[in-house]
Amino acid sequence: RPNGRAGTRNYVLVIPSVGCSQAVGQAIARGFKDVVCLPNILGCGQVGTDRALVKKTLVGFGTNANVCAVLIVGNGCEQLSPEEIRRGIAPLGKRAEVIVIQGVGGTRKTIALGRRIVKEMREDAARLNREPIPLSELILGTECGGSDYTSGLASNPAIGAACDMLVAEGGTVILAETPELIGAEHLLAKRARTPEMAQQVLDAVSWWENRAIAAGQNIREANPAPGNIAGGITTLEEKSLGCMYKAGTGLLEEVIPYASNPTKKGLVYMDTPAHDIEQLTGMVAGGVQIVLFTTGRGSPIGSPIAPVIKITGNRNTYLKMRDNMDIDVSNILQGKETVRSAGKRIFEAVIAVASGMVTKAEKWGQRDFCVFTMNITI
């Protein structure tokens, strides 16, 4: 890309700046290969920090290295103007244009204009060729959802091993899901490079617990979820200890807010919700180009612009959900494979996907998107 970053995909991204323009955005993107419309419903009615967070997330998707060019589609009277989003993307040097339904003159004319612009953008994108890049260019997101007892015993340790391999090559790994660190946060804090960073981890966990209590909910009683319990997880602490394995064994180099870009290499912790799609959205807005997603019970979740590799340690889930699962590491529990060996397979899959191999979530067109917000909508 013009800013020197490398992507694993080459999308033209259509961003509706508000929910009112989403249908038009979808119509503009429909039928074009490698043109994706972001299913955004926000952009109007957000108050306080939420408006800034929505803008930051939309801009983050536009600046992600997996995106070649951006068309922002506005309605014309929303609080978050499409021009604001364009100005946030433009400094990176990639093409970013705005069309407004009220200004163009209705749905039909806007779709026609948008499709002409997107066609040009797609032709520009098609002129770009894949080139070799060092693994140090990769920012890898980690996530677990639909967890069961195999997640903490097999799949999470395996992706932790893969993450250590990427860090050894100079790459970056994102750990997130703050509410699912509760009970194990001290272990992550001990790995922080500085005492100040360790305190940031502890403060983040305390914020989520206090926020939930203020809303009348005790996180430790509401988590694990019913599906986790049915899958053999008995306490939040047990779930959190399993979640921590995704972080590998390296030092924690940086703590960053939701939808923020890391400035350090190595292990980075992003403060996000545990909600799978909100977390995934935040990581990709922060520059993640590929995601490793572990699931014991099964999950179809995917991202609009970043390939998501699904890994399970549950053999039954792999057999029942072959449509959704990319990698089976259940042999770890059978004593037929080591964690490191499974981690090496995952690491090799990351390289293959970065080089163009398509994941199951991509094949299904699973493009989930949801921005984390904290306040009322007016």
Largest sheet geometry:
7 strands, parallel
Shape: globular
Mind telling me the C-alpha Rg?
20 Å
The portion of residues forming beta strands comes to 5-15%
The number of helical segments is 15
Molecular structure report:
By secondary structure, the protein is an alpha/beta fold. It folds into two domains: 116 residues, Rossmann fold; 229 residues. The chain contains 15 helices and eleven strands. A seven-stranded parallel β-sheet has the order 7-8-6-5-9-10-11, sandwiched between helices. Strand 3, helix 3 and strand 4 form a beta-alpha-beta unit. Helix 1 packs across helix 5, helix 2 packs across helix 3 and helix 6 crosses helix 14. The longest helix has 20 residues. The two termini are 38 Å apart.
